[in-house]
Amino acid sequence: MTDRNCCLGCCKFVFSCGIASLSFWLLLYTSTPLCSIEEFDALALEKTANSTIRTNRTLHYDLKLKNRIANKGIYYDALNLAFYYKPNLSHYLIGNATYPAFYQGHHKSAHRVGSFDAATEVVSENATAVFRVELATAVRYKHILWKSKRHRLVVAAEVQVNDRGSLVKLKGNKGIKMSSGAAKIEDCFNVVGILGILAFVHVL
Fold first, then answer.
1. What is the reported pTM?
2. Fewer beta carbons within 10 Å, N or C terminal of the chain?
3. What are the structural domain ranges in the chain?
4. Residue 53 above 70 pLDDT?
């Protein structure tokens, strides 16, 4: 075998390994849903002389869930929401909400909009008030021929409400992203994919 043929063979080997790795990655790649609070209104915090509004404990919210994966759907278990009011350094549970399980298609977004009456009075003498929203659920990823195991998803966000009773949004009128302090969700099939790549390379 000449040096040229040997070099060509090595190039084909490297190219084959690259294609195999990319195929496995595309097949098994997962990403956690992007969760955000798009709206959060507390009528009682609107600075107004109307005493009826000042004693209104109703809060409105808009939760957005986005599937960032272009080639996989996501199965959600029931969504469990908890809402806390955080005056000073303390925090109080003021409400809960639950939404049924559902399926989300490739690269799709879903909104869960609702309202509830706070369990305790919400009062603030400052220009803003702080709330905390927590979401707990579990997700499964729809691969071509199978569904992944369930992965627990627990995220939270602190949101500020201004003196008009509305959510203080980020630059560009963007909602508040929910994040997790726990380890990033990992799909068990990622391990299988790595082992598959190693086996493929070994066979070659």
1. 0.74
2. N
3. 1-30+187-204, 32-184
4. no
